[in-house]
Amino acid sequence: MNEQLKNGYFKLSGIKVSGDPEAEGSSARLEQIDLLLAPGEWLNLVGVNGSGKTTLARLLAGLTMEGVYGEMDRGFAGFGPSPYVMQHPDAQLFGENPREEVSFALEWRGVPADEIPDRSERILSWTGLLPIADWPWEQLSGGQRQLAAVAASGAAETPLLVFDEATSMLDDASRGRVQQVAGRLCRSGTAVVWVTQRLNELDPYSRVVALAGGKIVYDGAGRQFLLGDGLGGKGQTPCEQCGLRLPYLASLAIEMNRLGKLDPHSPLPVTAEEWREVLKRP
Ligand code: ADP
Question: How far is the CA of 45 from the centre of ligand 1 (A)?
């Protein structure tokens, strides 16, 4: 890659995060992490529990951490922490209601006071929170509270947003809504780091970085992560090698391909939409 092109990139080189120095035999939380993150890209960070996802996500968000070695250049993400959306919305809400939450976030990010009402209104409107913007948290569902946390995180249009299993406690409808808002923020130019274990929602065209034992064991396209290059061979796919369960639609594709039932010249289908297209073919 051309050096000039890399300038805006967020770069991690040879990063190590040591384990707990008090705990005997504790291993490093992260080791040998080399990562380039481009402005505006969507990066899925996956791995089993304890593989280092949260440690890496917090590091990317610029949250302070002990025992970090190696080089980090935040590039396009700039100085200061990036918004970080956690699994439990209640741990990150400071205001009394969605409108106040968004206003606080804008104020904290240094947006001039006279711009705050309009900008708050805009993000509340396109996240669908406007009708309930002044309701107290007790009257809102977990999904609505998480959406308010996402709206507050996205309000200041920072160049990077980190979502750490932000939808894992939500029902399907709320999960879809939060993911939709995150997608829209990404399409408007914000880079998104999306920590997840829900591989059935993976966009096969998006980038996957998989961690195992604190190291990056895969960095590439979602489809290859799920299916591997063998496309139906006997070996395990990168997803399975990480100890993660293959989503049903991806394992069905591998099985049908093995039986010779799928077009060998087309990419194997892994999403419901792609399966619909395959099944429509004569
Ligand atoms: P994941 O998000 O994939 O579940 P984590 O990043 O939370 O993984 O944890 C990676 C490793 O670091 C685990 O072995 C965990 O026990 C350890 N760890 C997590 N938080 C701390 C901490 N604050 N201090 C020391 N070790 C930690």
Answer: 15
Burial of 121: CB neighbours in 10 Å, binned 0-12, 13-18, 19+: middle
Please give all residues whose beta carbon lies within 6 A of any atom in ligand 1, as ranges.
19-20, 29, 47, 49-55
In three-state secondary structure terms, 131 is helix
pLDDT one-digit tens code per residue, 37-63: 999 999 999 999 999 999 999 999 999
Q: Which atom number of ligand 1 is nearest to the Cα of residue 51?
A: 3
Q: pTM value?
A: 0.92
Q: Is 101 known to be catalytic? A: no
Do the bridges between strand 10-17 and strand 68-73 make them parallel or antiparallel, or are there none, so unpaired? Answer: antiparallel
Q: What are phi and psi of 237, to 5 degrees?
A: -80, 165
The encoded tokens of residue 281 equal: 């073919």
Query: Other CB atoms closer than 10 Å to residue 245's CB: what's the count?
Result: 13
Query: What is the side-by-side order of every strand in the sheet holding 191-195?
Result: 84-85, 160-164, 191-195, 42-46, 207-212, 215-221
What does the alpha-carbon distance between residue 86 and residue 75 come to, in Å, rounded to a whole number? Answer: 23
